[in-house]
Amino acid sequence: MPGGEPVWLDNCEDMDLDYLFGFVEAYIFSPPDMKRPFLLYRTSKNTLIFPTGEFVGVYYSKELKYAKTIGYQVTPLCGCIIQKMDPCSPFKDFVTMLSIERIKAKKKGNESQAYVYKLLMNSLYKRFGINPQTSLIEICNYQRYLKLIQTYGFVDADKLNDSYYIVNYKTSTERNPDIEWKPPKIAAVQLAVEITACARIHMYPYISREDCHYIDINSILIIGRLLDEVISSTKLGKLKLEYASYDTIYVAAKNYCFFKEGHVDVIKHKGLTKELVTLDWY
C-alpha cells in the first residue's frame, strides 16, 4: 500500500512505468475493438465512462500496469510518486478477525451482530477516503452570523431570536482559501484508492467474460459457471455463490429478478416503489 512522503515528478515520458509507484497522469490508448474496457474516465459532465481510443487521465500505477497487460498503450506524463508501506497489508489481521467473528455470529443465528461486523469491514476503506467537505450547523451571535454568511461554504441560515442565529455551512470546499483548508486528520485517500483499484483488477477477469450480463458494486451475474477454487462463502477474497440455475430479467441498474419453478422469487429493486414491484410487473 502507498505511504510515506509523496514526491512530484514532471516529464515522465521516458520513464519505465514498471518502476513508478503512486498516482500517474498518463496518455492512454485503448484498442477500439476492446468490448469490455478496463480503465474508467470521468467526463466534463461528471459522468463515469469506460472509453476506447485516446484519452488522458490520472490513475493508480497498479491499474496502469495491469491495463498494459490486456492491450492498452500507456505513456506516463507526470505523477505523485509514493513509497510502499511496510507491511504492505496493514489491515490484514484486523479484517481477518472481523471476518471470523462474523462467521461465528452467523452460525449462532445472531444476524444483527453479523451485520455489524459486515459494516465494519465494508466501511474501513471508505473511512480513509472520506470527503473533506463537511457540513456544519452552528448557533451563533449576530457578528459571527455576518461572517459565516459571507464564506464560500455558506448554505442557509435562520434567525432564532433577537440574539442568536442558526447557520448551515460547509468547510474545506474547493473555493476555500488554503488557510481555511482543514481536511479530516485521519483521512488517507491513497489507501482507499489502492483498495478500490486492486478490487477492479481482481474483478476484471470476471467482468470481461462474454457470459457476464450484469455487474454491481460487489457482484456479477453470469450464464456459465466459475471454478470451484474461486468460490467460498467463508474465505476472504473469494466469491460467494448466491443463486444458481435461475431465469433472470434485467431492467436497469439494481433492478432485476430471479425466478425458478419451486423456489421463492428473488426481486432486486432499489427505490421508493420497492414494495410494489412483483414478478408480474417484470
UniProtKB/TrEMBL annotation:
Q: Which GO terms describe its biological process?
A: DNA replication
Give all residue intervals belonging to the DNA-directed DNA polymerase family B mitochondria/virus domain.
Answer: 1-210
Query: What are the UniProt keywords, alphabetically?
Result: DNA replication, DNA-binding, DNA-directed DNA polymerase, Nucleotidyltransferase, Transferase
InterPro entries reported for this sequence: DNA-dir_DNA_pol_B_mt/vir (IPR004868), DNA/RNA_pol_sf (IPR043502), DNA_pol_palm_dom_sf (IPR023211)
Catalyzed reactions per annotation: DNA(n) + a 2'-deoxyribonucleoside 5'-triphosphate = DNA(n+1) + diphosphate
- Which PANTHER family does the annotation name? DNA POLYMERASE, DNA-DIRECTED DNA POLYMERASE
Give the protein's recorded name. DNA-directed DNA polymerase
* Domain of life from the UniProt record: Eukaryota
The family line of this record is: Belongs to the DNA polymerase type-B family.
Organism classification = Eukaryota, Viridiplantae, Streptophyta, Embryophyta, Tracheophyta
The EC code for this enzyme is: 2.7.7.7
Gene Ontology molecular-function annotations: DNA binding; DNA-directed DNA polymerase activity; nucleotide binding
Known Pfam families for this protein?
DNA_pol_B_2
